[in-house]
Write a structure and sequence with these properties.
The protein has 205 residues and is mostly helical. It is 72% helix and 0% strand.
């Protein structure tokens, strides 16, 4: 096999690996968003939170972010590399928080692990969002979505705190918005073309 053939085989293998991770990540992001939709709708309608759906979602979001990183195929520069590391850290902390959550918990558990996962997730979203802008990982019209999700999360939580003063259930409205954004981001992670480093962004999808 010539060197050119070897490079072609390696490129195909890398692409297949990237596509596998991106499909898995997209599905996980959509599933995590669906869990938070389930949680928010249940609380808005009944005031009762289904057990563990809040704690499971951050694990799925972390896999979703790793899937987004796979879309870059080595592109995205330093923001992509740091964002990937933070996504992994977020997933690890979320698993710890899930393992040490009471098995029948119906309340949001902001243990140090869950809180750390939450912050790492936001930071990873921002950095991977910047990397998304540097690549063609998402269609042009949606290329700001991960960055917007990361930047807007804390302000949305502040809005939720204000709404909570009216009714505790209204705290779920901003979370519902975030959940829907995760579902759409997951769809884009799964469906968008794989980014090729050094190649300009293609036509708007």
């Amino acid at each position: 096999m010539s060197k050119a053939d070897g490079r072609a085989v390696s490129a195909r293998q890398l692409r297949m690996k990237s596509e596998t991770w991106s499909r898995l990540g997209g599905i996980c992001a959509m599933l995590g968003g669906a869990f938070w939709v389930m949680k928010s709708v249940a609380i808005l309608l009944t005031g009762i939170q289904p057990p563990l759906v809040f704690e499971i979602a951050p694990v799925l979001f972390a896999v979703g972010l790793i899937g987004l990183h796979a879309r870059f195929r080595g592109g995205g520069g330093l923001p992509a590399a740091i964002g990937r590391t933070l996504a992994g850290a977020s997933g690890g902390l979320a698993v710890l928080g899930l393992v040490y959550s009471p098995p029948n918990s119906t309340d949001e558990s902001f243990s140090p692990a869950i809180f750390g996962a939450f912050l790492a997730n936001i930071a990873a979203l921002i950095l991977l969002g910047i990397a998304t802008r540097l690549t063609s990982a998402f269609p042009t019209r949606w290329s700001y979505l991960p960055l917007a999700m990361g930047v807007s999360t804390l302000p949305l939580m502040a809005v939720g705190g204000a709404l909570e003063s009216i009714s505790e259930r209204l705290l779920e409205i901003p979370l519902l918005v975030i959940a829907i954004a995760w579902i759409w981001a997951g769809y884009l992670i799964r469906a968008s073309q794989i980014s090729v480093p050094g190649v300009a962004r293609g036509p708007t999808a």
